[in-house]
Amino acid sequence: MSQIANIKQEAEAEEKNVNAANQAPTLEMMLEKIEKRVNTNKKNEVEGSTLPLFPEQESAMPNHLARSSLFAPIRQGRRKLHERTKLATRSDCTIYYTGKQLDQADADVFLQSLALFSTTRHKSGKPLFISRSAFLKELDRATGNKNYIWLDESFERLTTSNIIVETTRYKAVFHLIDAYVKDEETKSYWISIHPEIIKLFKFQEFSFINLHKRKLINKTNQLAKWLQGYIATHKNGEIHTIKVEYLHKWATNGEGRLRDFRERALPHALQELESLGIVVSWKIRKDDRVTWFRPHRSV
User: Fold this and answer.
1) Which long-range contacts (CB under 8 A, 24 or more apart) does 265-273 make?
2) pTM of the full predicted structure?
3) N- to C-terminal Cα distance for the chain?
C-alpha cells in the first residue's frame, strides 16, 4: 500500500471517530455513563463514611472540640446538667451542648472509640463489637466491677448528650457516641459513631494525640490532659503564645477564679507536660500571656 493510500485510510478512520463522537448518545451509552457515576458516588460515600487512618498508638480529636470546654477539666463528681449551653470556644466555631457535663476521662473513652473505628476501617453508623475488658485495659484501668460501671456510665453520657457544631464550612448535629448496646444473651457489647462526626475530620481539621503519653499523665491532673489536646491543634516545632484568660475560658467555660488558674492549675499542668516532653521552655509572662515550645511529634 502506497504512502498516499495510508494517509487516506487514516483520514477516513479519523472522520469516523469524529462522527461517532458527534452522534447523539444511545440509551446504552447513557445507562453506562449513569452506572459509572453511581459507582463513583458509592465509592466516595464509602470512603466518606470512615475516619482517617490514625498512626499506631494515637487517636485524633477534632480541633474545634479540643479547643473548647466540651471535655472540661473538672473534679470527679462535679457535673452540671446542660441544656443547649453555648460552650466557650474560639471565634471560628460555635458549639452548643445538651447533657451531663463531660470530663477528660470521658475524652479518654471517646478517643479510644475513635481509634478503634479508625484502625478497623469501620464505617460510621455501623455497629462495632467491643470487649469491655480489653477497652479498659487500653485505658490502663483495672477490669473490676467499679470500672465496668464507670465505663457504662461514660458511654451513657457520650450517647445521651447532644452537640451542635457550627463553622463557616458546615453545621453538624450529633451524639459523640451514636449508640452503646449490650446484648443480654451473649453479654457482648457494641458501639457506633454518628456519620455527622465525619464532617469534623474533613479539611484536615483534626489533630493526633499520643495515647501512650496521655496514659502517663496523672489522672487527677485533668487540665494537663485538656492542654495536651489543645497543644496538639497547633504546629509542632514552633513557639505558641496565648493569653492566660483565653485558656481559662476555653478549658473551664470561665468557671473558677482566674487567679487560681494562673498561679496553681496552669503551672502544675505545664510542669507535668514538660516532664513528658509534650512542651518545653514554658513561661507565664508578666503581660499575662503563657508561652511554650512544642517539639516535633510531641503530643
Assistant:
1) 265/73, 265/223, 266/223, 266/290, 268/221, 268/223, 268/224, 269/221, 269/223, 269/224, 269/226, 269/227, 270/224, 270/227, 272/217, 272/218, 272/221, 272/224, 273/217, 273/224, 273/227, 273/228, 273/231
2) 0.82
3) 73
The three-state secondary structure class of 99 is strand
Q: Specify whether the CB–CB gap between 290 and 244 falls below 8 A.
A: yes
pLDDT of residue 257: 94
- State the DSSP H helix or E strand holding residue 5, giving kind and residue range, or none if neither: helix 3-22
| Predicted pLDDT at 204 | 87
Containing 269, the helix (H) or strand (E) segment is helix 266-275
| Three-class SS of 170-208 | CEEEECCCCEEEEECCCCEEEEECCHHHHHHHHHHCEEE
Count Cβ atoms below 10 Å from residue 280 Cβ, excluding itself.
12
At 204-240, the pLDDT tens digits run: 899 999 999 999 999 889 999 999 999 999 999 999 9
Phi, psi (deg, nearest 5) at residue 163: -125, 135
**Three cell numbers at 222?**
485533668
Pairing assessment for the beta strands 102-103 and 71-72 based on DSSP bridges: parallel
**CA–CA separation, 11 vs 19, rounded Å?**
12
| Percent of residues, the chain, with pLDDT higher than 70 | 83
Query: What residues have CB less than 8 Å from 226, skipping those under 6 apart?
Result: 71, 72, 73, 104, 251, 269
- 3 state SS of 291: strand
Question: In terms of Cα–Cα distance, which of 179, 203, 192, 159 is closest to 62?
Answer: 203
Say yes or no to pLDDT of 5 above 90: no
